[in-house]
Amino acid sequence: MVDLRTFNLSGTLSALSLLFRPSQCIPQAVVRNFNDLPLPLSRAFDNDKRFGKVNIRAVVLDKDDCFARPGENEIAPEFKAQFTRLRAAYPHPSMLIVSNTAGTPSMDPDLTSSALLAAATSVPVLAHRTKKPGCSAEIMAYFHSHAELRDLKPEEVAIVGDRLATDVVLANRMGAYAVWVREGVVAKEEKSLFARWEYGIHDWLKKRGVQSPVPGSPFE
Ligand SMILES: [Mg+2]
User: Do residues 169 and 135 make contact, with C-beta atoms less than 8 angstroms apart?
Assistant: First the structure.
């Protein structure tokens, strides 16, 4: 039986499309965990010469199993100091939390979680109708609504998250840069089956030479 609250149509369609375009689930950078994110974030992409000079002006952060335990609306204690550094590097309105739980109509209909999360992090939480990876228009509309980011291009956005099928596919569809946080807060053996499959899929594709798309490239 499919639980309609947690069922993610956008995510399911994305999983199917990956069969045909596997590069969509390859991130432009990989870090071990949230504490290993380099600052500024553009440094994460230094090793791939295809990208040229990367200028990250805005950051989208996933919540669950990225900087917080799933189901909690606070920064995990081990990531608090790093979170503060990241927020200082990307001051308002350049950082936005986009979660498939907090801020979605099915999981957070009265936006209680998103209000708690915004209060705990001092970062806005996007209320969005379409779950990741389908919400790129809502994300760009948020950034473009602020004068200092009115001219922001997708390739000036970094999306940080722990899931290939949602966070990384979102970035690649948008033409943004993805940073995959390989180890979140939860131990590997406690992760969902889908999350555990992603390690194997990623490593299998990489071994076969599948590369991430080049953000902003008209040829992708
Ligand atoms: Mg997550």
Answer: no
Ligand 1 center from residue 45 Cα (angstroms): 21
The C-alpha atoms of residue 171 and residue 162 are separated, in whole angstroms, by: 12
Expressed in angstroms and rounded, the spacing between residue 154 Cα and the centre of ligand 1 is 21
Q: Which domains occur in the chain, in start order?
A: 21-207 (3.40.50.1000)
For the stretch 47-100, pLDDT in tens is 999 999 999 999 999 999 999 999 999 999 999 999 999 999 999 999 999 999
The C-alpha atoms of residue 206 and residue 181 are separated, in whole angstroms, by: 16
User: Residue 161 C-alpha to ligand 1 middle, in angstroms?
Assistant: 6
Task: For residues 194 and 163, give the distance between their C-alpha atoms in angstroms, rounded to a whole number.
Answer: 9
Task: Please state whether beta strands 58-61 and 177-181 pair in parallel, antiparallel, or not at all (unpaired).
Answer: unpaired
